[in-house]
């Protein structure tokens, strides 16, 4: 009987004993959780996402690591190119889009002008090459990304080559995040 009482008391103390006070906790980066597909199982899991701070100057510069056709990383900060949409890596044209971005940015210092918005674990920015060219325009000219008029106001539409929209959103492989009807509605809204 004493053994059972001893185990009960130990269990209660374990559950209610203070583990660590708040002032002793290490400083952590700001984080948010989101649903992320697990590469091994394909199932959705909840993982913490790093939310980088927005610098007061709203400008980040440096060599870019290319993640996909509309996402780069400068230092530790992931940046979503504002106003465009490219296929994801695992979608048709996704690998081509990524490698086109590598060709555009390779070895150059990229300047990202942040707009203050966030997209999941990324900051949103218009990114420029050292000669002033907009990276969004360059990837769209390649026919491997599309204008997102809801966010860009249609400023990139003029750079889309003929057939790019059909290839990426209405063709046999269809890009799931953009539909021609969405573009038409947003284009009318922004131009009338």
Short account of what is shown:
With about 190 residues, the protein is α+β, with helices and mostly antiparallel strands.
Highlighted features:
single chain, 192 residues, alpha+beta, OB fold (Dihydrolipoamide Acetyltransferase, E2P), five-stranded mixed beta barrel, two-stranded antiparallel ribbon, 9 strands, 29% strand, elongated
- What order do the strands of the largest sheet run in, or round the barrel if closed? 3-4-5-8-7
| Uncertain stretches of 5 or more adjacent residues | 20-42, 170-175, 180-187
- The first-level CATH class name: Mainly Beta
How many strand units? 9
C-alpha end-to-end distance: 83 Å
Question: How big a fraction of the residues is strand?
Answer: 25-35%
- How many discrete structural domains? 1
Number of helices: 6
Topology:
Blueprint: H1 2-16, E1 31-37, E2 44-50, E3 59-68, E4 71-74, E5 77-81, E6 84-85, H2 94-105, E7 109-119, E8 122-128, H3 135-141, E9 146-147, H4 149-152, H5 164-170, H6 180-191
Parallel strand pairs: 5-8
Antiparallel strand pairs: 1-2, 3-4, 3-7, 4-5, 6-9, 7-8
Written account of the structure:
The protein has helices at residues 2-16, 94-105, 135-141, 149-152, 164-170, 180-191; strands spanning 31-37, 44-50, 59-68, 71-74, 77-81, 84-85, 109-119, 122-128, 146-147. The chain is an alpha+beta fold and 192 residues long. The chain has a single domain (31-191), classed as OB fold (Dihydrolipoamide Acetyltransferase, E2P) (Beta Barrel). Strands 3-4-5-8-7 form a five-stranded mixed β-barrel. A two-stranded antiparallel ribbon has the order 1-2. The protein has a two-stranded antiparallel ribbon with strand order 6-9. The chain is elongated, with a radius of gyration of 23 Å.
């Amino acid at each position: 009987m004493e053994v059972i009482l001893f185990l009960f008391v130990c269990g209660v103390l374990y559950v209610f004993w203070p583990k660590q006070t708040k002032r002793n906790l290490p400083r952590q980066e700001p984080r948010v959780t989101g649903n992320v597909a697990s590469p091994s199982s394909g199932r959705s899991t909840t993982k913490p996402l790093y939310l980088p701070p927005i610098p007061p100057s709203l400008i980040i510069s440096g060599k870019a690591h290319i993640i996909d056709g509309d996402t780069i990383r400068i230092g530790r900060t992931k940046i979503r190119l504002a106003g465009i949409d490219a296929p994801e890596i695992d979608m048709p044209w996704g690998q081509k889009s990524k490698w086109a971005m590598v060709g555009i940015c390779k070895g150059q210092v990229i300047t990202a002008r942040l707009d203050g918005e966030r997209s999941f674990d990324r900051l949103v920015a218009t990114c420029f090459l050292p000669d002033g060219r907009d990276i969004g325009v360059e990837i769209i000219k390649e026919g491997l990304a599309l204008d997102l008029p809801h966010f860009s106001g249609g400023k990139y539409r003029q750079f889309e080559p003929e057939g790019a929209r059909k290839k990426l959103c209405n063709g046999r492989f269809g890009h799931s995040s953009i539909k021609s009807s969405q573009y038409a509605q947003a284009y009318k809204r922004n131009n009338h």
